[in-house]
Amino acid sequence: MLAEEASKITSTFSDVFTATVLDVEKCKELKMGSYLGVVAASANPPHFIHLCYKPTDGNVKRKLAIVGKGLTFDSGGYNIKTSRGFTQISLSVNSMFFPFSQVHFIVAACENMISGTGMRTGDIVTASNGKTIEVCFFFNLL
């Protein structure tokens, strides 16, 4: 749904907006293991969205990137969150927009679900930059 909205924005405002939407196969090709680890248990396909605004005059003085984690649903994983944990999550997805010359909106839209294909505490995933990440759940600390 978010990918469809990005496409609508670029169709309506094609003079200033472009969009790139990566599907799961492209994310695999780019070795986006940390992102793919989060989406592994979801029955719904992820969409890594890059929406770019450029002014019509082409005079770009500054660039700004706004990156959102884009969880459309977060089950809490195997370490189910308490209501207090969910409150903390809502604080982490709020962001503010400042009107600079060129703006990139990047959203890793996906679900974090539970299934036999999902990550577990202790799993290690490899990010696209080659760094390895051990999966642990910090919401117990809240």
Automatic annotation (TrEMBL):
It comes from the Eukaryota. It comes from Zea mays (Maize). GO terms for molecular function: manganese ion binding; metalloaminopeptidase activity. Keywords: Aminopeptidase, Hydrolase, Protease. Belongs to the peptidase M17 family. The keyword Hydrolase applies. GO terms for biological process: proteolysis. One of its GO terms (cellular component) is cytoplasm. Residues 2-135 form the Cytosol aminopeptidase domain. This is Leucine aminopeptidase 2 chloroplastic.
